[in-house]
Structure formats: C-alpha cells, structure tokens
Write a structure and sequence with these properties.
Elements (H helix, E strand, L loop, with lengths): L4 H9 L9 E4 L7 E7 L2 E7 L10 H13 L6 E5 L2 E5 L4 E2 L10 H18 L10 H14 L8 H15 L5 E3 L8 E4 L2 E4 L6 E3 L1 H12 L3 H12 L5 H28 L6 H20 L2
Antiparallel strand pairs: 1-2, 2-3, 3-5, 4-5, 6-8, 7-10, 8-9
Helix pairs in contact: 2-3, 3-7, 4-5, 4-8, 5-8, 6-8, 8-9
Organism: Gemmobacter lutimaris
Pfam families: APH
Keywords: Kinase, Transferase
C-alpha cells in the first residue's frame, strides 16, 4: 500500500542525515517521484522519494551514480544521503529556466557550454556501470508495452512507429556521450549567475543530439535560438546535414515524451493529468514532424 504524504514527511524528518529538522514540506513538480524540502541546522535539503520504474528505464542506482558525478563536475547539487528509495541533495537557491532568460544573449552560449560539460565532464567523473539511452529502442519498448496493455492509443501506434523508424534512419550514427535526457524547464535551474541541472533519472549513454533537441523542444526555442545553440555547442556554423539530423532527433525527443506519457497513463499513481500531457506532446510532435518533412 502506498505511503501517505504524512508518512513520507515523518520518514524524511527521521533520516539519519538530519539532526533536528525544523521544517518538512512538499515541493512542487516531480512526475516520477515525490520531492520534499527539509530545513535542518540552518541549511535546506531536497529529499527525493522514488522507487525503480522499469517501464521508463529508471533505476535509482544509475540516478545516484550520475548525480554524484554531476556534483563532482560542479553541475549538480551535492548528494548528502542515499538509501533504497530515497536520496537527499542540497537545495540550491535557483529557479527554473524561463523564456525571459533567453533574451539575455549570454544564455544560449551558457546552455551550450552546460551541455558540453554534461556530455564530457560528468561522463569523465562517473564511477561504475551506466545505463544506455537510445531513444528509438525506448520508443519500440514503449509501443510494445502500450499494445500489450490495451492502451487507448493503440490505433495510432503503427503510424507513429513508422515515423520513428524513418527518423532513426535519417539520423544515422552519432557520437556517444553521457546525456541528461530530461531537459524540462524545471530541471534547468538558474541562480547566482550560473546554471544547475537536477533530476538525473534518465541519464545514460546516447547521442548528444537528444539533449540538444530536448532542451530546444521542451523550452520553446525559436529556430534562431536552435541554430545559435547548435553553433555554440559545435563551435562552428551549422551545416544543412547537421540541421536535418538535429531536427529529426528533436522530433524523436517529442515522440518519446508523448509515449512516455501514454505509458504513464497506464502505470503512474501520481496526481498528474497524463492524458492532457499526452495530447499536448502529440500535437507538438506532429507539428515538428511536419516541419521536418518540409526540409
């Protein structure tokens, strides 16, 4: 039986990393776990409760290992405690990335640098094994799961998977890096003139294009901002071939978010409107795929 919120609040307060908590309260956000804010000894911490979610490829040992590597690279908050089903990290004084931030001409180059640091610096500091993240394998696995569990979306799956296969063929081979793979606005925090990345649940080895496409599609970048991001990341002007490859991966990122939500409709017990989220992302994917076909 799932724990109540009060039980989780009590369990957080009793964690051995704390001495005498003065406040324990829920935090907003989190589509796959529950986050709590704990104030203890004049400092603030985030307690993340969450079990493995195999249907989404979330294994908490992997999240913990990459979180520690991100801390070592100076990109993620410090990990203060970890045990099965729970991780405690420092609370950082920052806010989610907004569209207004991109009005600052320094933002896009800073985000490109942040992604390079994820792909190389965090990777270099990672200990032990790490999961892979190839979006097209994930899409095929999601489609099989949806078909086997009588999803309401079964009728459109064959068409979506045909489009996924076309995108995979168009992208072809890419470099392999360690990716964050979940660059939603709430996972990109800005504070004190710098960026932090949090929530490494989906981190794994894959294509750098997935993070580039994901940060653009999830944060509403304009075409000019996308070109600026790609040029800053690669350190050179964007060729037509790279633009087409990138645009295909951006479509794949949107399709993955769509099927992720379809699966969550079936499996998640969290209080979140997955049906609306599916519809929103499906519309965004279809628009992006139509634009890709016109290239």
């Amino acid at each position: 039986m799932p724990e109540t919120l009060q039980q989780l609040l009590d369990r957080a307060a009793a964690l051995p990393c704390f001495t005498a908590p003065t406040r324990v309260a829920p935090l907003e956000g989190g589509k796959t776990n529950l986050n709590l804010l704990v104030e203890d000894g004049g400092a603030r911490f985030v307690v993340r409760f969450g079990a493995d979610i195999p249907e989404h490829g979330i294994l908490r040992w992997n999240e913990l290992a990459v979180s520690r590597a991100a801390e070592a690279a100076g990109i993620g908050p410090a990990v203060r405690h970890a045990a099965p089903g729970v991780m405690v990290v420092d609370f950082v004084e920052a806010r989610p990335l907004t569209s207004g931030d991109r009005a600052d001409p320094a933002t896009i180059p800073a985000l490109a640098d942040l992604l390079r640091r994820v792909h190389h610096d965090v990777f270099a500091r990672l200990d032990g094994p790490v999961l892979s993240f190839w979006v097209f394998h994930i899409l095929r696995d999601y489609a099989r799961r949806l078909s086997a569990n009588d999803s309401a979306h079964i009728a459109i799956l064959p068409g979506l998977m045909d489009q996924a296969a076309a995108l995979e063929a168009a992208i072809g081979p890419t470099p392999t890096v360690l990716g964050h793979n979940d660059l939603l606005p709430g996972n990109i925090l800005k504070g004190d003139g710098r960026f932090w990345l949090i929530d490494w649940e989906y981190a794994g080895l894959g294509s750098p294009l997935f993070d580039l496409g994901g940060i653009a599609s999830n944060n509403g970048f304009t075409g000019a901002e996308e070109l600026a991001l790609l040029a800053a990341y690669h350190g050179q002007p964007v060729s037509d071939a790279l633009w087409r490859q990138y645009t295909a991966m951006k479509c794949a990122s949107l399709l993955r978010e769509t099927l992720w939500s379809m699966v969550s409709e079936l499996t998640s017990a969290l209080d979140f409107d997955y049906g609306a989220y599916t519809a929103e992302n499906l519309a965004a994917f279809r628009a992006a795929y139509h634009a890709y076909q016109s290239l």
